[in-house]
Amino acid sequence: MSAELTSEGRRAAYDLALVLADTKFITAHRYSEWGMLGAPDIEEDIALSSVIQDELGHARSAYRAVTKIGADVEGGADDVDDLLYERDADEWRSATVLDEKLANWADIVGSLAFLDFATVLVFENVRDGSFDALQGMAGKVLQEESQHVQHGQAWLGVYADPDQDEFEQRDMQAAIDRFVPGVASWLGTGGSELVEAGVFTRTNDEMREEFLSEVQTLVEANGYEMPDVPDDWDDWDASTRRNAPPDPDSFTETVDEATGREHRYLAG
Predict the structure, then answer these.
(1) N or C, which end of the chain is more exposed by having fewer CB within 10 Å?
(2) Exposure b/e, 92-127, CB count within 10 A at least 16 = b
(3) φ, ψ for residue 242 (rounded to 5)?
(4) pTM over 0.90
């Protein structure tokens, strides 16, 4: 049975759904920039293409949840086209680690191993809650995202293998240094309003602590160094899970390319 949300709880659920939708949509776009001949071999090209399809499916489901919840939220969106085509770049709520292009294959691995792991933690939390609008999509997302995480974690071992010379361990360390703090920030702090609403069963802090504990074990077991993770939340916005909006000067092109909205406008 779905939880009966207060206006504050429904707003928090709406914000969460929009963050998840935007993050999955932009993840698919960042991967697509590397798809077809960008991966190390044809098998990885095929695997990445499958991951992109998964991410787009997750984004589609999350956007539907946004509009369903948004119909009862003041100022909320109730149309997916409005979300994709009518928002300015600085209104998007994708994870900060996706603001820039993924620089190399190690960044792809970092996204799979760390951002998708955080996604698993969030959807496990949603699955264990009692809010139908998000809970219903959790099963499929968890199955597919767990496979992404396993794939990314396997590649951590490839980069760490001293018997290969194709993939530089320093590239993977740089990706770890980028993604681990960024994803920990995305998981955020607080979250009691989501727990009180029945959307979550655990707070953001509890998810972040589990993330950091498991990631540290994984990172150090493969011979990498665990980066420092800032614990300053003064500028963190719970509604966007970011410290600041995306920079429109650089992110507008990303939104235009991801949505194809320039072509839509040209078509009238």
Answers:
(1) C
(2) bbbbbbbbeebebbbbbbbbbbbbbbbbbbbbbbbb
(3) -140, 160
(4) yes
